[in-house]
From TrEMBL:
This is FMN-binding glutamate synthase family protein. InterPro entries: Aldolase_TIM, GltB, Glu_synthdom, YerD. Gene3D superfamilies: Aldolase class I. It comes from Xanthobacter flavus. It comes from the Bacteria. One of its GO terms (molecular function) is glutamate synthase activity. Belongs to the glutamate synthase family. GO terms for biological process: glutamate biosynthetic process.
Length: 569
């Protein structure tokens, strides 16, 4: 029987000219379109120079006007700092002109700094400034309306603690874990190769290595670009089991063990659902499925890559815990966790009951907020499905604390993390660390053009077009990733010290206050319910979750009984 050879990873070949491109590939045509202004200016400048000698010297004026633009185009193409200029020479410089005059025009023509969605200009600007090592302090006080609903702040101490200079770390790994991992309090969240281009993946991994944090692979699996620079990796295993699957799409223990034992893989994360499209499965549009991606994932070329909406390796909460134990053993004792966007509360309690029943717990749980998500998703799912991060994080915290499991299971938050305060607020309600996706995309140069799913990202972040990816220089952007991480963690350290504390793990709900009306404010522990240890085991009927707890079943994701009133017959 012939022995199957290991497939080699090859760069995606350029499309051949056919009925739609007799003389050049679609990629080359795209390059000509993007460089059309630069080419036109260069050609007209040369023609005007020749005409100035051949006919009339007035053409020399045209040449003198256009020649500086030619120099600008040459500079744009050869510089490595700005990917947008490398991909759109000359015309791309117009963006930077508007960027410079925007603060002045905004007063009369444009929106304010808090009005944009999903990330307002203020949030993006702080990421850009910190990534570039630029000034991030603001003059003249806050621009926020402190009397508006939803305004939040942290309480401070009259005896602040010294600002910690050592990076904050969190040890991940319960009593069943043989190889615990020391994680940073801020890490690169799940973004797959394919959704992001190779240069973006390389820059994120190199930046994570420099910063001392981990880089989550996303469910697209381990690619050569995740491993090229040696940064710490958390391998996310979704329902498609990419990189650890049989031909029929089921989980392959042998293939998983081959990769999970790699020293660069520090933890394994089972993805149950994600904030952008919970209950839907991951989506990689066909336009972004190159031959290389198809080979890495083991999927057909030219078709949408849609992960199943549920796992085939288990069908009950108890079986999921057994799968966690299996992955922990196959990986050589590394921490294994789960990631989910919270849906039915009874299912969260079913997971907790399964942990108690089997005696098996994941080493960590990542809660993804419904407001998160970097990939393509149907509008209805993105806008109206899943629990927002804060409510989901508190529910998961209460499930773990209420069953006495919190000391074994670490808890992480993922969703719209852009600053030290967003991290501190998550940690105050129970998170041990935070993951960020879109903020790190901004540090790579993302300008929120909202074209992530089309394969035509102008900054080369979410595209596999080699010409567009050329604009993203790995070493340059990796430094910005590390800069953003360093400055954000330092901002967190300053907040923690101002509160009179030594570590973010000391933050509690009463350290964050929320304005519920123009004349009323409350600490978070007076707005949300925070259960004491063992409450769900000792006296579940005395908690607000009594009905959901009774409905939860360790042996089924379906509830034992209906929660709430039934539909009229």
């Amino acid at each position: 029987m012939p022995v199957a050879t290991k497939p080699e990873y090859k760069s995606a070949p350029q499309p051949e000219g056919g009925a739609d491109g007799l003389f050049m590939s679609s990629s080359t045509r795209g390059l000509l379109r993007r460089w059309s202004v630069f080419i036109a200016v260069t050609v007209i400048a040369l023609v005007s120079l020749l005409l100035s000698f051949a006919s009339h010297q007035a053409w020399l004026i045209v040449f003198c006007v256009l020649f500086p633009l030619v120099l600008v185009g040459i500079f744009d193409v050869t510089q490595s700092e700005h990917s947008l200029l490398r991909n759109y020479p000359v015309i791309g410089s117009v963006r930077w002109i508007f960027e410079a005059v925007r603060p002045y025009l905004r007063q009369y023509l444009m929106e304010d700094d808090q009005s944009e969605r999903p990330y307002n200009r203020e949030d993006r600007s702080i990421v850009y400034a910190r990534a570039k090592n630029e000034e991030d302090r603001q003059p003249f006080g806050t621009q926020l309306d402190t009397y508006a609903a939803e305004y939040e702040w942290m309480t401070h101490s009259l005896a602040p603690a010294p600002v910690a200079h050592e990076p904050f770390r969190v040890t991940v790994g319960g009593s069943a874990c043989a190889k615990p991992y020391s994680a940073s309090v801020l890490n690169v969240s799940a973004m797959s190769f394919g959704s992001l281009g190779r240069n973006a993946i390389e820059a994120l991994n190199l930046g994570a290595k420099t910063a001392g944090c981990y880089h989550d692979t996303g469910e697209g699996g381990l690619s050569p670009y995740h491993r090229m620079h040696g940064g710490d990796i958390v391998w996310e295993l979704g329902s498609g089991y990419f990189g650890a699957r049989n031909r029929d799409g089921t989980f392959s223990p042998e293939r998983f063990a081959e990769r999970a034992t790699d020293p660069q893989v520090k933890m394994v994360e089972i993805k149950l659902s994600q904030g952008a499209k919970p209950g839907h499965g991951g989506v990689l549009p066909a336009a972004k499925v190159t031959p290389e991606i198809a080979e890495i994932r083991g999927i057909p070329l030219g078709e949408d890559c849609i992960s199943p909406s549920r796992h085939s390796a288990f069908s009950t909460p108890a079986q999921m815990m057994e799968f966690v134990a299996q992955l922990r053993e196959l990986s050589g004792g590394k921490p294994v966790g789960i990631k989910l966007c919270v849906g039915h509360p009874s299912e969260v309690f079913a997971l907790a009951k399964a942990m108690v029943k089997t005696g098996i717990q994941p080493d960590f749980v990542v809660v993804d907020g419904a407001e998160g998500g970097t990939g393509a998703a149907p509008h209805e799912l993105a806008d109206h499905l899943g629990m927002p991060l804060r409510e989901g994080l508190i529910l998961m915290r209460n499930a773990l604390v209420g069953t006495g499991l919190r000391h074994e299971v670490r808890l992480a938050a993922s969703g719209k993390v852009t600053s030290g305060f967003s991290m501190a607020a998550n940690m105050a309600i129970g998170a041990d660390w935070c993951n960020a996706a879109r903020a790190f995309m901004f540090s790579l140069g993302c300008v929120m053009s909202m074209r992530c799913h089309t394969g035509t990202c102008p900054t080369g972040v979410t595209t596999n077009d080699p010409h567009l990816q050329r604009g993203l220089v790995v070493d340059e952007k990796a430094e910005r990733v590390a800069n953003f991480h360093r400055h954000s963690v330092h901002a967190l350290a300053e907040l923690v010290a101002a509160a009179g504390l030594e570590h973010p793990g000391d933050l509690l709900p009463h350290h964050v206050w929320h304005r519920v009306s123009p004349i009323e404010v409350k600490a978070l522990d007076r707005i949300y319910t925070f259960l004491p240890a063992g409450a769900l085991l000792d006296a579940p009927d005395e908690t607000p979750y009594a009905a959901e707890w009774r409905a939860a079943d360790a042996d089924s994701f379906a509830p034992r009984q209906a929660v709430g009133p039934r539909r009229a017959a």
